[in-house]
Amino acid sequence: MMDDSFAFALGRLRKAAAGLPEVEESAWYGTPALKVRGKGFCRVKDADTVVLMCPLEEKELLLSSAPEIFYETDHYRGWPALLARIRIISDEELAYRLRRSWLSKAPRTLIRRLEDGQAGA
User: Fold this and answer.
1) Which CATH number fits domain 4-115: 2.40.50.140, 3.40.50.300, 1.10.10.60, 3.90.1150.30?
2) Distance between CA atoms of residues 105 and 24, nearest Å
3) DSSP string, the chain
4) In this predicted model, what pLDDT tens digit does every residue of 39-97 receive, in sequence order?
5) Dihedral sign (CA 119, 92, 8, 73)
6) Within 13 Å, how many C-alpha atoms sit on residue 113's CB side?
7) Calpha distance 38→101 (Å, rounded)
8) pTM
9) What is the bridge-based pairing of β-strands 39-46 and 49-53?
């Protein structure tokens, strides 16, 4: 059962991931998550934070350019995962980050479907 404190974060993730093919809700490390074909691409860390998959080069750029939104802890240092403050990230930025995260985990067939504009197919 989902902790009520996670409801806001999960709701934002659901909305931002709308239109991405085969997104499923699940648990990952004991918290609510979104996966594509069983592979996690984001999860709720706590009531104020979500974890997004992110290439290391891009992660460093985001950490330095928007530290009010993005950060990391020692646990995530050196890993292609980025922490985001869910209460202050804009809807547009969250949707963009989720799409990038989804692209890092989705199989090529789904990526092609998304690129071809058949997300709902």
Assistant:
1) 3.90.1150.30
2) 13
3) ---GGGHHHHHHHHHHHTTSTTEEEEEETTEEEEEETTEEEEEEEETTEEEEE--HHHHHHHHHH-TTTEE--GGGTTSSEEEEETTTS-HHHHHHHHHHHHHHHS-HHHHHHHHTT-TT-
4) 999 999 999 999 999 999 999 999 999 999 999 999 999 999 999 999 999 999 999 99
5) positive
6) 14
7) 14
8) 0.89
9) antiparallel
Q: Domain boundaries in the chain?
A: 4-115
Give the model confidence (pLDDT) of 4-21 as tens digits. 779 999 999 999 999 999
Residue 19 C-beta-side C-alpha neighbours within 13 Å:
10
